[in-house]
Each structure stands twice: as structure tokens, then as C-alpha cells.
Amino acid sequence: MTNIVEPRVTLLAHTKINEAAVSEWMDIQDSSTDAETLLTMAGRNCYRSFHRPNEATRDDADYLQRTLSDQGHWSIAEHATATLYFTGVSRAFLAELTRHRHLSFSVESQRFINANDANIVLPPAVRDSDEEAKDRFLWSASESIKGYEDTQIALRRLPKKQRNEAARGLLPNCVETRMVVSGNLRAWHEVIHRRTQPDADAEIQQVMRLAAQQLHLIAPTIFPDK
To answer: Which letter does DSSP use for residue 202 in this model?
Structure first.
């Protein structure tokens, strides 16, 4: 039976500051995350304004709002990074996301992983359609996976990697893939902003909103809770 999976995004790692080193130059505000503190220090270093001379931007959140959003100085956001784990996403999603070459990817290999029991990711248009449309889509996907299995059997005398790399040519774009993706916060912000626009692919819109929720945990000033 075909197993349908939903997208999931998990925060694996993110920048952590050396508090003793930062405190030597600038006070650390309790309301700021490590990422926000680092970005603030990077920005204030440019003007030696660690003593926070402007009352309007004394708080890190106000400073980052002015520097990033109002003035458009996004270079400081490149100092903090985040690593996310994407599961329940399709190979079509992978093709979309890897266009953003300022991110770093580690993707499960279809040459090593046997896809006989591959999970299926329904495109949002199919997922939100009637049962007949879903059934037709799943039947077609299952037939492709069956063709994959038949090809593996036909090539059974070859080593596993060679069987898989040949058979994977029959796998549909809706097959689940899993990937670890890292990027600095400027890169993540640009990707999320672009890929949540109405003209973006429907699946990547959904997944990037999930990514923004995870990034909100480490930099709420940059990724507000929407």
C-alpha cells in the first residue's frame, strides 16, 4: 500500500555565541537570541557603536529592524547560520530548492537507498482535490514504482548501486526525499521571501512557511511569527 507523507521541517543546529567574548565589547540583552546578538555586534562593530548611543535603537530588535528592513543592510545577517532537516518533501521540491546555490545540501542518495517502499508526497493541488483525482495520481505513482522494481529484478546480476541508478530513472517526482540544508540567515530570508510568493511552486510555498516557523525560534526579529 502506498504511504503518503506530509512535509516536516526540523531545526538541527544554529549559531551559538561565546558570551564572554561578546560581553567584552557589548552588553548582551536578555530579550535577544544568540543569532540576534551576533548580528547586532557585527553591525555595531562597523561604527564602534557598542555603547548604544541612539536611544531609538538601543534594543537589539529595534536596531535590527532599522539596519535590515529600513536600511537594507543584510550583509550582517550572513554571520549567523541555521541547519534544517527536511522530510516528507518531493524530488520536485529538491529541484526547486537547489536552485538557491547559496544554501548547502546533503541529500539522501537514490543510488544507495532502495525505493521499493518509497513514500509519496501529494502535490497540494492533488491533495486538496477529490478522491478520484487522488486515486488516479496514486495509481500512476504506484505503477512507476512497480516499473522501478521490475527493472531492479531485470538487472539483478549487477551491483546494488548500478541497479538503483538505472532503475531510479522510472521514479516519479512525487517520491519522498530527505535532506539536511544549511545557510546563513540572509540566505534563508531571501529564499523564504521569494518562495512564499503566490507565483512560487505550491509545495515549496508550504514547506518554506514551515522553515520560517523553525527559524523564528532563533531569530524572531528576522522571521516573525505569522
So the answer is: H
Which 8-state DSSP code applies to residue 204? H
- Helix 131-154 to helix 160-167 angle (10° resolution) is 140
Show the 3-state SS of 74-107: HHHHHHCEEEEEEEEEEHHHHHHHCCCCCCEEEE
Q: Is the pLDDT of residue 124 over 80?
A: yes
pLDDT 10s digits, 85-120:
999 999 999 999 999 999 999 999 999 998 888 999
Query: Distances from the Cα of 199 to the Cαs of 9, 112, 138, 203, 204, in angstroms?
Result: 22, 35, 26, 11, 11
Write the burial class of residue 20 (CB in 10 Å: 0-12 exposed, 13-18 middle, 19+ buried).
exposed
- Rounded average pLDDT over 190-203: 97
Burial of residue 75 (number of CB atoms within 10 Å: 0-12, 13-18, 19+): middle
DSSP 8-state assignment for residue 113 = S
**Does residue 195 carry a catalytic annotation?**
yes
**Given this model, what pLDDT does residue 1 score?**
61
Choose the catalytic residue: 44, 168, 186, 195: 195
The residue type at 15: T
Report pLDDT digits (tens) over 20-71: 999 999 999 999 999 999 999 999 999 999 999 999 999 999 999 999 999 9
DSSP state of 69: I
